[in-house]
Design brief:
12 copies of one chain form a homododecamer.
Chain A (H helix, E strand, L loop, with lengths): L2 E7 L11 H4 L4 H14 L2 E7 L3 H14 L3 E4 L8 H7 L6 E5 L21 E4 L4 H14 L1
Parallel strand pairs in A: 1-2, 1-3, 3-4, 4-5
Helix pairs in contact in A: 3-4
């Protein structure tokens, strides 16, 4: 049986089709979901992939993860830089949370160099496009043994 | 035939045996090398693993990587936070350089939140202990694949 | 007849059961509600207690308070540190708004030392755990006479 | 036939009736809508005027504008100062987005001097009360001309 | 029998009669003392109320509180913003110290937004005029209760 | 009869012909003047358009506007960022002063994000190229209208 | 009859005899007192000249000035840079307080460039050695008519 | 015979008639000149009083003072806060230069708290309205003996 | 005959008995005095050991040292971080002043990293508990020969 | 035939005779001009050497250089540190502009460490006294071939 | 038998002969070594004194100290201010490390006020010239008992 | 006979062949050496040209220059921005040291705007590509001339 994990995506990530492909890669969101799903399966996870532009919805999902003790792969997108509310929700987890980014945020605009989430994440993977998620899945597998 | 890659480790990493295992994990440096080597092999790479406490030596290795067009997995350790000389060397590469950290630097002391290397790296993987290297190897495979 | 007041709670406060009890106290959210309710009653108030992880919902409640001229006891939780939208909503009130915090925010992480809400609050009560609310109720009674 | 444009208003703007008229002008929100509508009509636009206190809703509207290639007049209100999520959504547009403010934000509190939106806007109009919108409509006409 | 507590007031507080009543309230210092005294009595405390403009005197009183294990209600007034000597003295207490302010310091001049005392206080109550002390007395009762 | 207004242009604006047209638009200064003039006429204003690279000259013109109670449209160009002398002169006006910029200064270099003039302006219009002036003329009509 | 004024001197000023005469001038404190006294007399004032190294003593003297409605000439010496307690005391005055300094503090060490007192002083005179006091006496005469 | 001194006034000071009299006092510039002139005469100086809104003109006057070894009383007005060119000119003097301000700049806007001139002035007199000049004249007399 | 030296201790140091022994060591103040005394004797000094929580008292002692030309060993405790008045007093000495700290202040809270005293001290010894004083005594012996 | 170049000198440079020779060298301005002229001639340039204390005049000369496509050697003197207006003018050039300084500005006061001009200059030569100009002339020769 | 300790000296310390003797004292490096050696002997230590300008060499020596459990006296010289690599090496020690400086770094240039080493040192001794080492030897003796 | 000078090049400069030629010019390091050599010869110098990526090696060469009293032309490359150890070594020279840069560092990334070397250099030449060295050679000739 597969272990369930949550894969949470923050604001604007459902619109990869129209985001700058030189920064965010060539896949659209449907393709990204398929990549994550199949990668999860081949590593023994069942992915529950969700996306929201809404801070509160993401907070709710993190609560759900805390309640059901689900590991989380999380791309906070722009919330990375200011949502202390999401940080506090992520801090509730007793399971590992892995922060992922499609782009290498540290080589972009100054405001993207700060993450208010990293302080409560297990680890961070950034800059590998859609592959960042695959790496996070493998990382999770490594952690959960 | 295996593709050669450089795996470069910065200052103090050869002394994992005596570093705080709650931060840096339980492997000593010899075990870390073995993990990297075997992981490389199983992903089709031949790892040339090196460690130095010396800034100039690392710069030289990056030049070598630039000349021989070798991909690089690089844990700059404390050099992460101030060695612009290494940054300039890393910028010479036309092959991908992946920055790795054993610990999640963003959740440690303030001075560890700044990386002068990230700006010229393809991507960053931090916080997964020795497994950070394995993930970087897989990331490299994804990129070169 | 009891005077109605709004008691508004920001993100993650409904999950007191799983938050760090050394910081947030031993009551769960249901118990906190009961404490607030009974304390309100014994001071001549009818408490309308609400919690939301959603910035817009809280803004709406503050508008409601402004319209119905209801006094407000408000624990903005993590929104304390960045939600200027909530600040602008709170500024609409002509009735007193009291800012409360379970923990003593000024003795925690640096980012918790800033409140964008205090500037438009009547007063602040922080650090007394669930009792912070009781004190705010009594404060309100003192103000409203 | 009229060209459709989106006129988006951020948090607390529906409550102009109770905001400080010395800062925000004398019109209530219904009157503001009427002003915008009639001004649009007389300049050949059909205004789709919306207001939300909710960050995610505004992000959704900006996605809609991106999809339908609608020009946008946008008063981000307090979101101006911190919502990088909205900034990222606005960056998706290929049509012009004009930032408007009722008040002259640069002559108010220090925190209102920073706009995280301006960097992705075509231009900014601030300080003319409800007339700021009329000017933005005319500006749009000039651009789309 | 009543439990003894110390109520300590910092510089200029004895001169409430001539301080700006729109900020500090309408009571003079004698009336404030009477309010504190009677409020203490009705909550089972015997108040030892003291005021000094002198840093060293206040340090001495905090030492006394530490020695006699007395709870403390403390309005550090302007010392709030720079007296690390008082902070170190307050840190000696094993009984709770509650920081009070007549005004809401966070909505006044920038320099009043910093408290070097809060870091070693149990909690803070600010902005309720003389009633801030009454709330602190009740808070103390809750803690010791 | 037309109402006279001053249209003041700061340093380097007479040389639009050689400034970067991707930032400042395609008109040269003569064409800009004609645009402003005709736009003024059609809105019932007589434009007195002036340009100077000299701080003192601009200060003098602002004094003239103060004496003759003339409304002012003002593009301070680079003086925007440091001329407190011009700010003090602009503060003398009892008629409205509108700050205009050809480019969207907030999306350019960091030093262009600060305006020492905005604090004493009625409003700001930036980013619409030469059309910024037309919008300011219309804004003025709205204010004086 | 002569009008009484207070001339208050802060820490270390009684030891002018051993302070650096290139900065503080050639008079010792007794001579400075004589200069102030005679200068006061010739301008119709009776000087009550005091010096203290003690913050609380100076606060008390400012209270006395507030009670007796005495004008004050005040050299806060090193307290200039951090004593908010003295600032709050000075703010109680309804008579003018003039800040004086022997040296030109703005041309000395960085920490001497900040005055927490100036914000509540009528005016400041700095850099004229003992003559700074004479000028302050004359200034007071001008103000009090 | 009278000793000649230069009294230099910076930008906007000729327009005292329309500046905020609560800040700058009740005299207009002609009256200010007369006050300075007569005060100079009665102290044995012949005042050469000049005003300019032009940085270069003031620099020229300072050169003249340097050449003719004239003492200078200087109100740099808004140039106080940024004109390093004037600072360098003032540094050429071998005679004393006294900085004067009508208002107490340290109690006004933040940007007025910095003086780039003070570092090369003999002393500073601020906050006494037109009387600041009289005090400077007396100060000069004291220095020149 | 023994040479007299002053050993001055700042606020809260007399209460070593109740300060955190993991930071301040195991001796109480009486034992610290005895250690200093006997160490002085064995190095040829007669120690005049004093402690005060009062800034002015310490300033007075420094004046005494200046007058009697006594060398000083000084633990300014919390005054280290803000008392410019003490700094100015210490600057009067023509004999060496050695700054000592029980704890290694640079490895504690951020605010303890700044010393306003060091700038006028001969040298600093920090982190050796009570032994810091012994080292200072030996240092003094080295300097005084 | 000689190629014409502009050599522009900013405020106070005509007064080298009275500036601190330990910083600015021993030549007076006439001698500096002669040095520049003869050095130009011997390198095939005809120098048009100008000096002004006036920002606008220098802006005008830079416009002239832009129009006539003249290379420029420019010592902005104190304008270096704040004149964005001159920066914008310098940015208009399509010919090389070389920034020169007599002194090594980076080893002087903090405010001299910032150049707002360097960002639009080809290169910078500082610290060689009058010889800085000679080097710039040779540099120009190198660039123009 | 003597206990072995390492005495490590950072960059440029071997060249004391040509460093500013008013800052670094009168001994040359050979004499400094002799002083340290003899002082060690007389306190029961055998000093292994080393100097290197090379960061990696010093890191290696600290590793050696960690392996052989040798106490360390360390003058990091300029590495004090930026070498996080050395800090990480020093953090490996389980024996005490004492930081020494010849000069009182806190009274020199601003950049010398920061030590990245102190955070992992037992204590600091600065300002006593060569005698700083002697004090450190005695300090070590005190610690090691 | 030719006077010997040292020409020192910092990290990565030997790899000019693969550095961005739009920033660093078209010459490779061998050609740069030849340019320097021949330019030295024609100005009467014998160039000892060295390059190292190693901080300690460069420090050693600066010591050598100090010992042999050799003038130095120094391109510190990335060490410019953080190597205080090299700064201290450069400060030992009694002969002139000239700082050179191929690129105009002040117009590149923010971190390149700071030089910790300039404070101890005679002068700086930046932005002229390989020709920067030629200018430095001529500068040296002028100084030693």
């Amino acid at each position: 049986m597969l272990m369930k994990i949550l894969v949470l995506n923050g604001p604007n990530l459902a619109r990869l089709d129209i985001r700058d492909s030189s920064i965010y890669g060539d896949l659209d969101y449907t393709e990204l979901r398929q990549l994550i799903e199949s990668s999860c399966k081949s590593h023994g996870f069942e992915a529950d992939i969700r996306q929201s532009d809404d801070e509160a919805t993401i907070i709710g999902w993190l609560h759900e993860a805390a309640d059901e003790k689900l590991p989380v792969i999380f791309n906070p997108a722009a919330f990375t830089h200011y949502s202390y509310a999401i940080r506090d929700a992520a801090a509730l987890l007793t399971t590992p949370l892995i922060e992922v980014h499609l782009s290498n945020t540290m080589s972009r605009e100054e405001f993207r160099h700060t993450s208010v989430i990293s302080g409560v994440a297990k680890g961070t993977i950034a800059g590998f496009g859609p592959h960042s998620y695959v790496l996070a899945i493998i990382a999770l597998k490594g952690i959960l043994g």
